[in-house]
Design a protein that fits this description.
Order of helices and strands: HHHHHHHHHHHHHHHHH
CATH topology of the largest domain: Tetracycline Repressor, domain 2
Number of strands: 0
Helix content: over 70%
CATH class of the largest domain: Mainly Alpha
Oligomer: single chain
Largest sheet: none
Distance between the termini: 70 Å
């Protein structure tokens, strides 16, 4: 019996390649990389393809560093939440000190190499993004205030601005509006998740809005932020990187998103619980598609402009 327990403990402590990949939060990284690529490609001017590729690799490493540092710090609350309990650190497959070391090493490498490959502005923005996510959001806001995701959402909103800075060495109004699009999108996206994951946040002691103010207030906040999101998303279409292709996509996507938010705010809690929060889950899944298609539309708009005007 002793041997079995010892063997189980060994298995729990053994990390495979997939565990180290998971430590970097690849799903979050993919969104970071995609929005950074869009910011780089729609920016004015030109950049050498190798510089662009190298820069995106270093942005991805920076995103991975943020994920590792977040998992190191949040291991205690991840351990009690169903959604996160199987992550490599709370599950015991990667040790906390190891996650911290990887996060710090990747942070330094990504920032320094981006500065060398592109410019100091983009490197500075990447450094601030890592600091904001790991320290301002993870260590402070997440456990201190129900506005955690409102302010903390800025960490996920910086990548297109970093991509823009890589290409131009500056930050324009278009980059700021891409930042605003992600920033305002983040609260309704995460609050929809919180509506059907409230018990997890309650057990972990995370003051998510559903825990501190209840689900009814959270539903109203989702609608409120959606109403702010619509003009920000559509307004991007009237800048230099917008146009008919983007505007058509933005109008359709925002009508669907607004309709979903209205359905959520009208939901009776008993009915929502009875159908397993089906409406909220659909809204959450669509919110991912919503952001992806907005940035995809920006790429399509840029491609259409290059085709019409010969680059």
């Amino acid at each position: 019996m002793t041997d079995i327990r010892a063997d189980s403990a060994t298995q729990a402590g053994e990390a495979g390649f997939g565990d180290y990949v998971a430590l970097l939060k690849p799903r979050v990284m993919s969104l970071v990389v995609f929005t950074a690529v869009v910011g780089l490609l729609v920016a004015p001017g030109s950049i050498h393809p190798f510089v662009a590729f190298a820069s995106i690799v270093f942005v991805a490493l920076g995103a991975g560093a943020s994920g590792a540092l977040n998992m190191w710090w949040d291991a205690d609350i991840d351990r009690v939440m169903r959604r996160t309990a199987r992550r490599p650190v709370p599950a015991g497959r990667v040790q906390p000190g190891e996650a911290l070391a990887i996060g710090l090493a990747l942070s330094g490498i990504s920032v320094v190499m981006l500065g060398l490959a592109a410019n100091l502005l983009s490197a500075g923005l990447l450094a601030f993004t890592i600091f904001f996510y790991a320290v301002i959001y993870s260590m402070w806001l997440k456990r201190a205030t129900p506005q955690n995701i409102v302010i903390g959402g800025a960490a996920g909103a910086f990548p297109p601005m970093i991509g823009w800075a890589v290409a131009t060495g500056s930050v324009g109004i278009e980059a700021l509006l891409m930042f605003a699009l992600i920033l305002i999108w983040t609260p309704p996206h995460f609050w929809a998740l919180a509506l059907f994951m409230k018990d997890d946040y309650h057990k972990a002691g995370v003051p998510m809005l559903t825990v501190t103010h209840g689900r009814a207030a959270t539903r109203r906040h989702i609608l409120g932020y959606t109403l702010l999101l619509v003009p920000a998303a559509v307004g991007l279409g009237f800048t230099a990187i917008g146009g008919a292709v983007y505007l058509a996509a933005a109008l359709v996507l925002n009508l669907i998103f607004l309709r979903g938010a209205i359905r959520i705010v009208r939901r009776d809690e008993a009915a929502a619980e009875a159908d397993g929060y089906a409406t909220e889950k659909r809204f959450f899944r669509f919110s991912l598609t919503y952001l992806f298609l907005h940035f995809g539309a920006l790429l399509a708009q840029a491609a259409a402009g290059a085709w019409l005007f010969g680059g």
